[in-house]
Amino acid sequence: MGIYPPSLENLIEQFSRLPGIGQRSATRVALHVLRSNQNLAEGLARSLLEVKEKIRFCSVCFNLTDDDPCPICRDENRANGSICVVEGPGDQLALEESGGFRGRYHVLHGALSPLDGIGPEDLKISKLLTRLEQERIEEVILATNPTTAGQATAAFLARILLENYTRIKITRIALGIPMGGDLKYMDRMTLEHSLRNRMPVTP
Asked: According to the CATH classification, is domain 80-172 in 3.40.1360.10?
């Protein structure tokens, strides 16, 4: 038997099922909801239901949206011939918030990981190839994460694209020393990528 009333224990249990939230954090959040006014609880409940009811994948880029196609795919100013391929919606959001890319995206929803049983058929790779046939694409930017799975996914895509789409420029986002970084604290792989992706100095 828990130390809190059953309804509160249930709320704590539900919060603790969320990623990154342990029992202690779940308890703090649940107690905050309990202490807050009714509007917070009602708004939270409505938002949770609304997300489950309205959010779906864009039929073009497979990003999360409540309108299909999503606003980016509908924006003709973004149809500049570039597609940036990312692993998940969070990666797309990070790139979009940077303001450094004004083309369109393609979300794979994962990365290749044979040990976890994730193969090419489990990702939105075939949908990407379909887009390359249908849209006027000049460049594909591979922006998968610099992890073992992300690198394997980028290499797999690069091989397919270079073999079958010679008219399209295939690029990979640069990997290296972050702004404000210190060389002596960098890992070997980061330093290796930095040296390999070095750029000429211009006046």
From this structure: yes
- DSSP type of residue 76: G
Closest CA to 125 of 103, 108, 149, 147: 108
- DSSP-H helix ranges across the chain: 6-16, 23-35, 38-54, 71-74, 89-98, 125-134, 148-164, 188-196
CATH number of 1-36: 1.10.8.420
CA atoms within 13 A on the CB side of 28: 4
Please give the distance of CA 38 from its chain centroid, rounded to a whole number.
34
Distance CA 165, CA 75 (A): 25
Structure pTM? 0.81
Q: At what angle do helices 23-35 and 38-54 cross, to 10 degrees?
A: 120
Concatenating the DSSP letter of every residue in 27-38 gives HHHHHHHHHS-H
Sequence spans of domains, the chain: 1-36, 80-172, 175-203
- What amino acid occupies position 145? N
Given a cut of 50, the residues of the chain with pLDDT beneath it are none
Residue bearing tokens 């990528």: 193
- How far is residue 83's CA from residue 103's CA, in Å, rounded to a whole number? 6
Sheet with 169-172: strands ordered across: 104-107, 82-86, 139-142, 169-172
**Tell me: the pLDDT tens digits for 31-81?**
999 999 999 999 999 999 999 999 999 999 999 999 999 999 999 999 999
